[in-house]
Amino acid sequence: MYFFIIVLAVHALVNFYIGLRGWQALQAAPAFRPWYIVFMVLVFVAYPAGRMLEKIWYHPVPITLHWIGAFWFAAMLYVTLMLFITDLARLGNLAFPFIEKLSQGNMPGLKLKAFLVISTITLLVVIAGHINAWHPKISRVDITLPKKAGNMEYLRIVAASDIHMGTIIGPRRMNKLVNTINSLQPDIILLAGDVVDEDVKPVIQQNLGKNLKELHAPYGVFAATGNHEYIGGGEPSIQYLEDHGIVMLRDTAQLINNSFYVIGREDLHKRYGYGKARKTLPDIMQGVDASKPLIMMDHQPYHLEDAKAAGIDLQLSGHTHHGQLWPFGYITQKIFEVSRGYYQKGDTHYYVSTGFGTWGPPVRTGNRPEIVVINLYFKE
Fold first, then answer.
1. What is the per-residue pLDDT across 271-287, written as a single tens digit (0 to 9) for each?
2. Model-level pTM?
3. How far apart are CA 196 and CA 232, in angstroms?
4. E strands of the chain, at which residues?
5. Residues 227, 238: Cα–Cα separation, whole Å
């Protein structure tokens, strides 16, 4: 509860700052000020109102509010960054006056021009980021493991994380995901958490499970839980995925084709939703034949040394989105040992995906979404 209060307070303060600066900038166009206030009130309430309303009334009205608010989150970031730059310029003007010269005696006109420039740049960035979010790349990695996997010499894994199925990631995006994954002819499909974006009701309403059932791989489709499954209540989302062809690995290891193991760890967020921590990796590994290849999904890429100590050959993670919106990728690089991409630590290989979907704004400006193809070669 305190977390959401803090988030709403920050949201309110940022919007007040933007609203005040915009009001000041419209001094030269007073007729637009009332419309500007209406706009600011709408975008301020849109996301929280849409998210709350769609839980009880899945209708075009809350869905539209959700979309407006989601786009505004991205716009809000870039408007705020540019306003900070203008404020720094104003501070610099105290020491080295230059703004009066730029205004040529028409300060209200200069403010209006700044308003239009910031608005235009923000609009272009958000549109470009939305287009980018719709076009995932295929990331390919080849890894050779010094182990035998029965009679298998090769395994093609197609992996995706952070799909965030829901109001924003609906049927069109899911069709794209399924068609792309199937076209890559996977031997096995691994979904490394956050398949569902919190509330499962929009997933049910749009029948997105139909898309999941169309995923095909000879060795099956497996998933681990992510923090968003637990934010949404845990069991309803997990049960829905299981009912639609996804094998959920919850602190369990499964032997596939008597040749290799797929291990799925519960998300760290389980302890908040259930008041009970997930199993330790050594507990999960009891009874596992470590001479066979060990492939593990662990949604949040913390404590990479745990996988190394347990003899895991390949760990797949997501969660970071590598910040999703520039410049947040610099922050995730400080938080996580690996924020995105391939990494090797000792004999353990890691891949942290930027994710397929988006959380919050349907916009990516810091990186591209991705589907990952990992070709594993077994050579003892």
1. 887 778 899 999 999 99
2. 0.92
3. 8
4. 137-145, 154-160, 188-192, 221-224, 247-248, 252-256, 260-264, 294-297, 314-317, 341-345, 348-352, 370-378
5. 12
Q: Angle between the 33-56 and 2-25 helix axes, to the nearest 10 degrees?
A: 160
Backbone angles phi, psi at 78, to 5 degrees: -75, -30
Helix (H, G, I), strand (E, B) or coil at 135: coil
Average pLDDT for residues 199-206, to the nearest whole number? Answer: 93
CB-CB contact of 267 with 299 (8 Å)? yes
Q: What contacts 297, CB < 8 A, 6 or more positions away?
A: 190, 191, 192, 193, 222, 223, 224, 249, 262, 263, 264, 265, 315, 316, 317
Higher pLDDT: 97 or 21? It is: 21
Instruction: Give the residue ranges of DSSP H helices in 57-106.
Output: 60-95, 99-103
In this structure, what token pair is assigned to residue 88?
């720094």
- Phi, psi angles (nearest 5°) of residue 359: -115, 135
What is the rounded CA–CA span in Å between residue 247 and residue 241?
A: 8
Q: Which amino acid is at 218?
A: P
